[in-house]
What does this fold into?
Amino acid sequence: MALDLAGELESRRGEGVSLFDRHLNSQLVQVLKTIGFDIDYVRGEGPYLYDAAGLRYLDLLSGFGVFAVGRSHPTVIAALEQVLTAHLPNLVQLDVSLLAGLLAERLVARMPDLEKVFFCNSGAEAVEAAIKFSRTATGRSRVVYCDHAFHGLTYGALSLNGDEVFRKGFAPFLGDCVRVPFNDVPALERALAGGDVAAFIFEPIQGKGVNVPDNGYLAAAQDLCRKHRTLLIADEIQTGIGRTGRFLACEHWAVEPDMVLLAKALSGGFVPVGAVVMRREIFNRMFDRMDRAVVHGSTFARNDLAMAAGLATLSVLDDERLIERTAELGERLIAALRRRFAGDSLVREVRGKGMMIGLEFGPPDEIRLKAAYALMEKASRGLFCQLLLMPLLRRHRILAQVAGPNMPVIKLLPSLVIGEADLTWIEDALADVIGEAHKLGSMWDLGRMLVSQAAKARAGAI
Ligand SMILES: Cc1ncc(COP(=O)(O)O)c(C=O)c1O
It folds into this structure.
C-alpha cells in the first residue's frame, strides 16, 4: 500500500513524545517535559508555530537560525516543487550542476574578492572543509579559535569548540588547535606570532552568549592575519544571510575574510546545505590537479533541492528587502528593550545586532531575591533564565532559549519576517516575566523545585 503520510500523521497524532522517548533521545523528552516545552506543534508559517488547538506561538528560536525567511515560505516551496516535478538529472556526480553554478554565482556576487564556492550539507561540514582548505592552502596545521566559540559538533568542529560542556568525554581532539580569549587582540597576536598558524576562525558575533566584539577587534584580527599570512575564516553560519542586518555580519566592521562559512538560513528552512565561499587561490590549492578533482566532497552536496532552496532564499531576501528590514526592526527592538529595562537590576545588558539579540541577567538588588537568585545560579548557571523562559512560552506563547551552557543570557533569534506587532509582543511578554521575577512567588518556588529535581537526578546518575 502506498504511504499515506498525511493520514498517518493524523491517525497517530500525539504519539510523538512516546515514539521519541522509545526510539530517539529520551533525555531530551525529559528536559522538554520538565520545563514545560513539550508542546505538540502541528504547523509552522512565517515567524509562527501553531499547536493542535490552533494557538499561535512566536518562534524566537527559528530552528537555531534556520528560518530566516520564515517557515513555509511560498517562494521556497514553489522552487522546491519545480525541482521535484522537473525530473532534473540530480546528483549525476560526474557532471556539472547548473543549479550549483547559479547559486555559487549569486553568493560570490555578494562577497567581493571571494570567487569560489565549496558546497556541503551542514554547518559543521563547512567547518570541516574550512580546516582542510586552510591546512592544504598554507602548508601549516595550527588553527586558532576563540573561547566560547561554537562551530559544530563533528570532530574537527568540536576541536574548535570553546565550551567544555560540549567537549567533555570526547577527547582526544584534532591536534594543533589553539584557543584564545574572544575580543583579545594581544592574545591573538601572541598566538599568531610564530608564523605557523594556518587559520584563525571566528564568529563575528558569538552565538553562545551573543557576544559582540569591541569595534576594533575584528579589524585588528584581520591585520594580524594578513601580517602572519594566516587565513581569516568567518563562521557566518548563524550570523550570515541577513541575520544581523547585513548580508554578512563581518560587514558591520568592514572585515573581508579569506573564507566565509554559511549554512542554516541558506536552506530556506527546508533542505540542509552548507557553503564555504573563499578566495580562488585557497580553493585551487586543494583542487590542484586532475587526479585531485574529488579529493574532498560529499555525496549529497550540490543536490538540486538544496541548491534551489538556496537560490529561493536569496531571492526572498532581496524581494522582501529583508536585510534592510532586519537592520531597522532589530535596531528598534534592541532600543526598545534597553529603554524598557533601563534601571532593572535583573537585566544587566541588552546586546546584539539585527535579529540576533541577547539579554544578560544578574543578581537583583532586592536582598531576599538575591539569595534565591544565588541558589538558582549555584545549582546551574542559566537556570534563572530558564525560569523566565517557561512562563514566556506557556503564558505568552513565545519560544526562546538560553544563549548557551552556563550563562545567564537569553537569546532572541527570530525569523527575519517578524512584524511590528511581534516587537510589542516580545517587549510586553519579557516585561511581564521579568516583572514577576522581582516578586518572591511561584516562579522562585518552581525554581527551587527544579534545583531539587536536578540534585536528585545527579545523585541517581552513575
Ligand atoms: C556559528 C555556528 N557554526 C557552526 C554551526 C554548526 O552547524 P550545524 O549544526 O549545521 O552543523 C552552528 C550551529 O549552531 C553555528 O551556530
Notes: The radius of gyration is 23 Å. The chain has two domains: 74-319, 322-460.
